[in-house]
Predict the structure of Phosphopeptide-binding protein.
Amino acid sequence: MGVLKRFEQRLEGLVNGTFAKVFKSEVQPVEIAGALQRECDNNATIWNRDRTVVPNDFIVELSAPDYERLSPYSGQLGDELSGMVRDYAKQQRYTFMGPIKVHLEKADDLDTGLYRVRSRTLASSTSQEPAGQRASAAPRGGRAGGGHVSAPPMPSSPPPGGAQPVPRTAPPGAGPQPYAQTRRWIEINGTRHQISRPTLVLGRSTDADVRIDDPGVSRRHCEIRVGTPPTIQDLGSTNGIVVDGQHTTRANLRDGSRIVVGSTTIVYRQAEG
């Protein structure tokens, strides 16, 4: 069972209590969890063969109405969300530099249902926390009724001793690499999602690798497959896929390929190095 599904089941026990009102709001806790999970993936940094560091300090900006609905429950919601991040990090073998903290903030420039997620890596002054270790959490929140509004990540703390982190896309092992490696990612509404596995499933389901909040997108809509060349495959979606202006069920991808699913445009990118 996936981390997000377990998180959702834990919250179900609270629906008749504290979270009864929260689940009626535009922003849903499970979508907050999905956004934080993606934030970890998109900002993971390989330091050496055995250590990949992810952010541990998160800020989720909400519209004024969503902030007013969620802020009274921020403590309990923050505890559940921090546990979800910790479980996900353990599953992915990520580590943290310090305690996990999540903050809710009100953003007057956001409409109801929209959110921004920012994150940073903050080193603990006493010790470093491995993934899976219990830590205190502050409030968390965020979801996009009409789409996720991305924000630039906050600056990360440098590794101890002034060493520079190795980019996530480099092969395991510290230090410069003797050969170039193809980096692959997709861009959706200005947000970059790294492709770091052989397949990447896109869809509306919380179990998809990249979740797309679009009513025209099926739960498991399509799949990008890394290969020579990389390809995209429709997974039996209702509305199909359009690649570079052509309706198709399968197509090769190149740098700059434009994929349309529902009303959402996805740009495929790749680069050497």
About this structure: Residues 126-179 have pLDDT under 50 and may be disordered.
